[in-house]
Amino acid sequence: MEPAAEAEIDFSEVYAMDRIAFNGRILNFCRVFVAIVSGCAAGIMGITGLGGFVAFLVSTLLLSCGLFLKVSCEPKPFFKKPEDIWFEGITQALMSYILFWTLFYDIVHIY
Fold first, then answer.
1. Which of 17, 33, 35, 62 could bond to 93 as cystine, CB 3.0-4.6 Å?
2. Residue 26 CB neighbour total at 10 angstroms
3. How many whole angstroms separate alpha carbon 46 and alpha carbon 109?
4. Intra-chain end-to-end CA distance of the chain, in Å
5. Are 53 and 101 in contact (CB under 8 A)?
6. What is the pLDDT of residues 8-49, one digit of tens each?
7. pLDDT tens per residue, range 59-86
8. 100 to 36, 69, 96: CA distances (angstroms)
């Protein structure tokens, strides 16, 4: 083979799908963990109504911003789509947040 033919190969769009899937699982784990911790904190502090949902959005946004900075503002090589770092696993995290938010609010402020 000629060296010029090898130089023309572009590997910039070649991804290890097992690594991308692993990153997605870790992202979901982190997002749910942060949601549980922030749900516990919101319940203990007695946050109710829309303030609780704002607390969830703020904690999720902080996690996403931190991860975005961790990947040097270039999430494409690490995730299937660049927007996955912002939206992947939000519904799972929201359900976990609501569960722990209401649980800890009930434990601290009702009982």
1. 35
2. 11
3. 7
4. 77
5. no
6. 665 556 678 888 899 999 999 999 999 999 999 999 999 999
7. 999 999 999 999 999 988 888 888 999 9
8. 6, 28, 6
